[in-house]
Specification:
There is one protein chain. This protein is of the alpha/beta class and about 500 residues long. It folds into 3 domains: about 270 residues, HUPs (Rossmann fold, 3-Layer(aba) Sandwich), CATH 3.40.50; about 160 residues, Orthogonal Bundle (Isoleucyl-tRNA Synthetase, Domain 1); about 50 residues, no CATH class. Helices cover about 45% and strands about 15% of the residues. It contains 16 helices and 15 strands. The strands form 5 sheets. It has a 4-stranded parallel β-sheet with strand order 4-3-9-10, with helices on both faces. Helix 8 links the parallel strand 9 and strand 10. The longest helix has 23 residues.
Length: about 500
């Protein structure tokens, strides 16, 4: 299909044809979570969005190195340069090691993302494992005159940088406006400008997480971590930097400034790609508003706002049914509708598996063949148009109508060429399973279904329908299950 992938580049504010710096190799970096709490819908949206991009790039035969970090130090309360480290705060409250907090929530993050069927990154670096690289980057920025040290802390000098660079090029912020609207914050008297941000912070006596540096025993700034880790694994300039829209400023803006101010003199990534936010019934999702929903709560239904539990594939489909750059509004109605849409696509897989191309085909219907090939191409057209999964799903539903008509005999399979039939089948399966990353979920409660089968077995035995008794035993044996006729009743066990 002669289509090119286009991506919206936040840096240039327009869609651009995706042309890797060193094709067929692609470097992609995604800002991962700060692991001080359970993953929520916002984490899921970012993970699923860039999972589909990762899958599609691989489908297009690119050799992708996907790096997604874990922030385990330096992310302070309210994303500021003062206050307590988010992870340290939890560790103190629970009287455990900070890295216990990190490991606990990293495990949960991995578990929930696996349920959502996201592919693991090729590299998952932790900030605490790259202190040396961060110190080296700070030295470069200091040597270039874009940072200063005060009382053991090092700050990035935004006004000095902005003389010859554009601080705000990513977010569209203007330094003069930022200065006019930024108040002096308590505890930040060390800074020359309120816009300056920490590259290294001297640790207070009560601060647990600290490392030696040329300036003090302390810890790195949050923004610096991603600059250092992306540079280490993807080089000074790479292809795609992704993340949520909430990270565009100041986090990603600061990353670009650090990259430019170090010896890299680069924006870091060629394409900066941002997914939009999740709202809940039209309101921004937030803990203070009481509308904050963790993934585990979604999967279990254990939240006051949930009418029921929603399966991981329902949540994944819900995320994909909207364009990644549009806001996505959570509601029970939207998730219930997503379940129906997901089920429809799964039924399509089952129907396609049953369709067989006849040994003797009729004369091909040229118009029908053209129509089916165009519908198939439309599915990819959506993906190539800035990863528009909403459009791709709509196109898949249009294609599915024709597939169902073939299954029901309303259209004749034999009027398709073998090439068209194979193209439709392969494209549908590839799009649903390999690119959108949906998969069939287990049906209901297997224990309950097994209990129902044992009831049928009991009834067959009581009515002396021994052919049915033997048939049920044989089928269950194929599944590795044996029926046990006990004095106390009928039971089952795994075959040993």
């Amino acid at each position: 299909m002669q289509q090119k992938l286009n991506l919206y580049n936040t840096l240039t504010r327009k869609k651009e044809i995706f042309e890797p710096l060193h094709a067929p190799f692609v470097g992609m970096y995604l800002c991962g979570p700060t692991v001080y709490g359970e993953p929520h819908l916002g984490h899921a949206r970012s993970a699923v969005t860039f999972d589909v991009l990762y899958r599609y790039l691989k489908y297009l035969k690119y050799k992708v190195r996907f790096v997604r970090n874990i922030t385990d130090v330096g992310h302070l309360q309210n994303d500021a340069d003062e206050g307590e480290d988010k992870i340290q705060k939890i560790a103190k409250a629970q009287q455990i090691e900070p890295m216990e907090v990190v490991q606990h929530y990293t495990n949960i993050y991995h578990r929930d993302l696996e349920k959502l069927n996201t592919l693991p990154p090729d590299i998952e670096p932790r900030a605490s494992g790259h202190i040396i690289e961060q110190i080296e980057m700070i030295k470069e920025i200091l040597d270039n005159g874009f940072a200063y040290e005060v009382n053991g802390s090092v700050y990035f000098d935004v006004p000095a940088y902005n003389k010859d660079h554009n601080y705000g090029k990513l977010s569209g912020r203007i330094v003069e406006d930022l200065m006019a609207n930024t108040r002096e914050l308590e505890g930040q008297e060390e800074k020359r400008s309120p816009l300056d941000f920490a590259l290294w912070k001297k640790a207070s006596p009560s601060h647990i997480m600290r490392w030696p540096s040329p300036w003090s025993d302390g810890f790195p700034g949050w923004h610096l971590e991603c600059s250092a880790m992306s540079r280490k694994y993807l080089g000074t300039t790479f292809d795609i930097h992704g993340g949520g829209l909430d990270l565009m400023f100041p986090h990603h803006e600061c990353e670009i400034a650090q990259n430019q101010a170090s010896c890299d003199h680069s924006d870091g990534a060629k394409y900066w790609v941002h997914n939009n936010m999740i709202t809940v019934n039209g309101q921004k999702m937030g803990k203070s508003l009481g509308n904050f929903i963790n993934l585990s709560e979604l999967f279990s239904g254990n939240h006051q706002m949930l009418e029921q539990a929603y399966t991981p594939m329902t949540v994944r489909f819900f995320i994909l049914q909207a364009h990644y750059r549009s806001t996505l509004d959570f509601s029970n109605e939207a998730l219930q509708a997503a379940r129906k849409g997901y089920t429809k696509l799964m039924n399509g897989l089952r129907v396609l598996a049953k369709l067989q191309y006849p040994e003797e085909a009729a004369a091909p219907d040229e118009k029908l063949n053209e129509e089916l090939l165009k519908l198939t191409e439309d599915c990819f057209r959506g993906l190539n148009d800035d990863m528009n999964t909403a459009r791709t799903i709509a196109s898949l539903f249009n294609l599915l109508k024709k597939i169902n008509s073939l299954f029901l005999g309303q259209l004749q399979i034999g009027s398709l060429t073998r090439g068209t039939f194979d193209t439709v089948r392969e494209a549908y399966n590839t799009l649903v399973l390999d690119i959108l990353g949906l998969k069939e979920e287990p049906l209901g409660d297997q224990e309950e279904m097994l209990h129902l089968v044992l009831q049928f077995y009991k009834e067959a035995k009581e009515s002396k329908a021994y052919d049915k008794v033997d048939a049920i035993r044989a089928e269950l044996k194929k599944q590795g299950i044996v029926i046990k006729d006990l004095k106390t009743g009928i039971d089952w066990a795994y075959e040993e």
